[in-house]
Amino acid sequence: MKQAGLNFRSRRVRASRLSCLEPEGALLRHSAGFTLVELVVTLIIIGILGAFVAPRFFGTHGFEERGFHDETLSALRFAQKAAIAQRRLVCVEFPDNKTVRLRVATANPAAVCNANLAGPDGTTPYIVDATADTKYRNADVRFTAVPATITFGPLGTPNAAASISVVNLAVPVTVEAETGYVH
Prior knowledge:
CATH topology of the domain at 63-175: minor pseudopilin epsh fold
Strand content: 15-25%
Structural class: alpha+beta
CATH class of the domain at 63-175: Alpha Beta
CATH architecture of the domain at 63-175: 3-Layer(bab) Sandwich
Shape: elongated
Radius of gyration: 37 Å
Number of strands: 8
Distance between the termini: 101 Å
Number of helices: 4
CATH superfamily of the domain at 63-175: minor pseudopilin epsh domain
């Protein structure tokens, strides 16, 4: 029985020694926080995102080109609709590589556009402009290879097909020859 009691005591002593060490071991195994490697990797990822993604969110590069493209598209569509609604010749002029101006003939039939066309908001003449005093002044916005004039007849048909491109933007504005569809 002594033998059995001795074994029991020795187990008890060993168990009490282990129980004293358990809380420290548990703290080391289940400690809260991040390792140094995890923190360094996280900072590297944040640095890469900050270098490449943040300029796209805070910069305006690309937005001006797209806005000028969309306003040109709208001006051409408005010119076609005005020609049909007024049953007059409407001319879309490109006086330089940064301006679109709409003009209308005062009589029908006519061969030339001799008056400025009012825009949808009532301003005369209807101009889409990318010169120094406009909202596109901070961007390199201009046309490449534009026709001198696009005319829409009283039925909305253009004088010829046309394709107008804005610098730094891959999508051109196209006017279909048969229907005058602008896209």
